[in-house]
Request: fold
Amino acid sequence: MSSPSDITGMLVDWGNGDRSALDKLLPLVERELHRLARSYMRRENPDHTLQTTALINETYLRLVDQRKVQWQNRAHFFGIAAQIMRRILLNYARDQNRLKRGGRAIHVSLSEAMVLPAEKDRELIALNDALNRLEAIDERKSKVVELRYFGGLTVDEIAEVLKVSPITVLRDWQFAKAWLLRELQNGQ
Amino acid sequence: MANNNLPQLEEVFHQAMTFEPEARAAYLSRACEGDDDLREEVESLVVAYESGNGLLDENAVTLAMELIGSKPADSMVGQELGSYRILSSLGQGGMGAVYLAEDRRLNRKVALKFLSVEFVTDNWAKRQLIKEAQAVAMLDHPNICPVYDFEEIGDHSFIVMQCVEGQTLADLIRTKSIKSHQIVPLAQQIASALGDAHAHGIIHRDIKPKNIMVTPTEQVKVLDFGLAKTIQMSLEDATESLSQLSKDGVLIGTVAYMSPEQLRGEKLDYRSDIFSLGTVLYEMVCGRNPFAQKAESRGSKSNAEVISSIMADEPPSLRQVSPQCPKDFDRVVRKCLSKDRDERYQSAAELLMDLDNLQKGIALPTRVSTYLNVRNAALAASLLLMFVVVAFIYQAWAKADHTLAVLPIACEGGEPATQCLGPALTENLVRTLSRRRGLRVTTSHVTPSFFGPQAASPQKVGHDLNADAVLFGKIRRGENGLILTTRLENVKDGSRIAEENYPLNPDKLSLLEQQVSLETALILQLPMSEEDRNLFSALAAQQNRSGEAIELYLRGRVYWTKRDGENIQKAIDNFMQATEKDPLYAKAYSGLADSYVLMNTVAYGSLATKDAMRKAEWAAKQALKLDDKLAEAHNSYAAVLMKGHWDWENAEKEFKRAIALNPDYSPAHWGYSNLLATTGRSRESIAESEIAMNQEPFSAPAIMNYCRTQYLAHQIDQASLCLDQLAKEQPNYSSGKYVRGVVYLQQGRIQEAIQIFEEFYARDKALGGAMLGFSYGIAKRRADAERILGEMQEFQKQRYLPDQELAIIYLGLDDLDHAFPLLRKAAQDKFPPAQSIFVDPMFDRYRSDRRFTELAREVRLPVRPPA
Reply:
């Protein structure tokens, strides 16, 4: 596993505009997220939910040497985590949807693994598609949704990541939400 | 997108959102000015936004985490570790994976709980865990999942536990599989498990539905005792940044079941578990966690919301959520959920007592915060109470017309609502009673809260219905089947007119209804109908005796159950006539015996006590001769042996025989409780008096007998609380006040005691004199005590007054030389109230006197050693 200073370096590089740093960063973050999520879930009642950013926060704290990064890096890191979350979730929903459609009986004991309700995975796939369409029209708005919905970031954090004012984030969110909901309803 | 001008669309959309729906159309007409596409676009966005299906309202992080977090770790199925062969995965536990395994050495199935890597590599955490596991392994309780061992084999560390078959409470709640009658029994078992663990110094710290297993036979097994502590601490240790995390509001564990002090990170005690159990009980009734539910209603599922809800919100009353939830259960849960731990149950044992009572259908104390061992009792044998003949009952009901309110008959816990005979019985009773001449019957849908706040008391309901009497009751399960207890109350003052227990045979409901109707008519002195005569004949045929005799017997019992001086003669007259009509009627003789025993004890004066006891003995033997299998007869004879002969051994045999013949016959439990108290077996006596009280749930004397048993057992605080409860439930019961005075003396509240006895004395010298004189003596008001003594001596010249009364005043004056000869005489005369002086706390201070111990030896009673 890379040391905190490696990761911090990559994060700093990425913050300075080095796109390739992100590619190296993503799998590391994803692995850590997985590991932490598993350990969280073992301690958690599935009925019960965690503070939204807790997991990412902890991942960040574990991965990054905080003495070497500015606090803004944290927001960037959250941005990355949001992307990862979106990807993980989507992959899972697709897998599951495929399995269900394929009619293969999947034996999953409730205590062993979580199963998404059927409409939930269809919804997720539809949302992801709609979000891609929104990105084509207005990339920033789709980013706001990604950070907020998939990353669990607060308005201020999103404002920091996107370097806009919190008011703008709120307006973007409101509009994007209306737009996405309309897309989803039309799609049904 | 139809409109390509995004900035304009956004602007109009945001503006439109600022308007109320009514004003929005006008705004859009203005803003879009003929641009129909734009208008349509904005309108469709607004509609979509406002009809939002909640999809984007929460974020997906939690969902994602659950998904990625739940991928099963590398499976160990099939592996062999030491003597364990792993058979299958049971899921994820608090610390790591849990597997079903076979212990080949002992040839049994076990559950293995593996510790995940974080724990294994941390020696400190592991040591803690071993320590905790060892502590839990010491526990041996049917509702605690036993821990067998802690093993370290190779890289693996795991706890070996009993393999419990069944479902977690979480599963049962989720699938709505818990029936309402199961809730209290499950709660009792959880509380019992906690009580045992707490007694061993172990706090669970993570009580939640997932940690509670329920077996197919509905046995509870609580899992993971004490382990939460280790987890939390090791995590603290492992994560340097926890302080940082905490600042961000992250908490590990199942927040929704944590107590406020746990969330604040304070040092925990047992009461934290009580809070957590409260949330579990709440969830069992309403299906949702009380605090998560609050947070959700605010549209949030975050921990922060849950935490703030635990810290600040009162969850809605369970009765709001689930109207059929018994009020008392709601109160129990509320008390568990009190934010302030001082206001919760102070121990699981205390909680368990309330749950036990709930299960038995005993109403719980309403406001008193510490548990009172509610009620007890034993009027008859008491030295103190014998004078307390109460005038609280029986208004002479004129033959004028009555209006009777019949309230719904309730079924006591444990009986599924669908099987409760109450509603059918109520309806038929209303119909049967309505046919009676001289009686107007009204009814209500309000089920009275028997001992609850006045608001729903039977008296209040009756009053609202303009009735002058109110009939209500409940059905409970006795040893030999169902029993209907009815109570008839005077609406004017809430006093009891009558109370009866009937065996309830579901196949013979109509007979029962007629019987209740008939007895109500007898008590209210309504004219007998043709139907009544038929019923008497029917009962007579059933019992092979004359209808008239049965009628007389029933009348006699009605008077006798009042257990006071006023009605004894009436009871005797009726029983006597019944035996005249039917000389083979064993029950009538038994009733006669009981009445004479009572006369000997409480209504002396009209007949010398010895004479009464002789008659009682004759009647009891007569009853036994006629029917050796009659519980009533054995009980009567037991009372004669105890109170007349002071023959403890044989009296005990007879009481036990009576109880064996009919465990539902409350006078036998009552009498036996007195015998046990007298002979110094206080714990058993409390238990028996409690049974009697439960069997006569509306009877003030039965409750007082319970309170008094506690008093005699030197449980002064409990007795005091019991009396508080009695006063609340039966404010018109003056005997309660008298005993209150006696208890005050033990509590050192002498002035208050004096005040009570002054009142009694003013009303009736015979009633208050002894205790008033005694209290003055204790208060060192010698002149007052001597004045009372003089007045009582005068009084004795005009009326019969037992010598023991004067002895008590002498004792108060510390004049033992005068007191002892009188006490001895009372004992030699076998004066029943003298039986309890050897256990009565009032006499503790004289007990070391040689004369006292000698006296006890003579009557073969143990002297309670001075405390």
